[in-house]
Specification:
33% strand, six-stranded antiparallel sheet, 225 residues, alpha+beta, 7 helices, five-stranded mixed sheet, single chain
């Protein structure tokens, strides 16, 4: 279900809720609607925050499980589909919020399509209960095309196997980060970062991995705390 409204003292919000959403009706206050969704243990996602003009205060106003870090239709509408900066601000503040990529497909002729952004979920079974449980636990990654086949983190070394990519980035708070790519432009399908090699990065509030393929499409892990 998608709901929208303006919380008291906040900015206009679109919110996507996945899971139990019973008797959610367009009546009452936005705060009451959010309370009802959280009480039902729905996964609550702040949708396309850049497009709506949301800031970190809006994210912290409610117990969001995730925010949309990429929205394909909003990118097509006016270039406001990417919300990575807001996500990094939230993570640097120590708030555990996951990142979602979505196409926002309304299946209408003027829209660019249904396959611009999605999530890949690691679930025990192909059931709504298992998928929603994995989403709420952060057992997924967001992508516009590239695939993570494995993501391993032993507390120091991050090792990933992927579909063919040209670039991998380890992203931390502020300016902190590392990057891997081949000088000759050849693709790679595995890489690793040893966090302790960069003491400042090792002390970052969070880390996340981003990969990019030859078509400049990207994929993102959820934060590694």
């Amino acid at each position: 279900i998608e709901v929208d409204g303006t919380p008291l003292g906040g900015r206009y919000c679109h919110v996507v809720a996945i899971g139990a959403c019973i008797d959610i009706l367009p009546a009452g206050t936005f705060e009451q609607t959010m309370h009802d969704l959280v009480e039902q243990k729905a996964m609550v996602i702040l949708a396309h925050p850049y497009w709506c003009g949301n800031d970190i205060g809006d994210v912290q106003r409610f117990p969001f499980d995730a925010i949309e870090i990429y929205n394909h239709v909003c990118d097509w509408l006016n270039g406001k589909g990417t919300s990575l900066m807001l996500w990094d601000q939230v993570l640097a503040n120590g708030d555990s919020v996951f990142g979602i990529a979505a196409d926002d497909a309304h299946i209408v002729p003027r829209h660019p399509g249904w396959n611009g952004g999605w999530v890949m979920v690691q679930a025990e079974a192909l059931t709504a209960e298992a998928i929603v449980g994995s989403l709420k636990a952060g057992r997924f990654y967001a992508t516009c095309g590239p695939s993570f086949y494995s993501i391993d983190f032993d507390g120091d070394t991050i090792t990933c196997t992927t579909s063919p990519i040209l670039r991998a980035r380890l992203v931390g708070a502020g300016y902190l980060g590392e990057r891997i790519w081949h000088e000759d432009g050849t693709a790679m399908e595995s890489f690793s970062f040893k966090v302790s090699d960069n003491p400042r990065l090792a002390n970052s509030a969070y880390l996340r991995v981003e990969i990019e393929d030859a078509d400049h499409r990207r994929a993102w892990t959820n934060p590694l705390w």
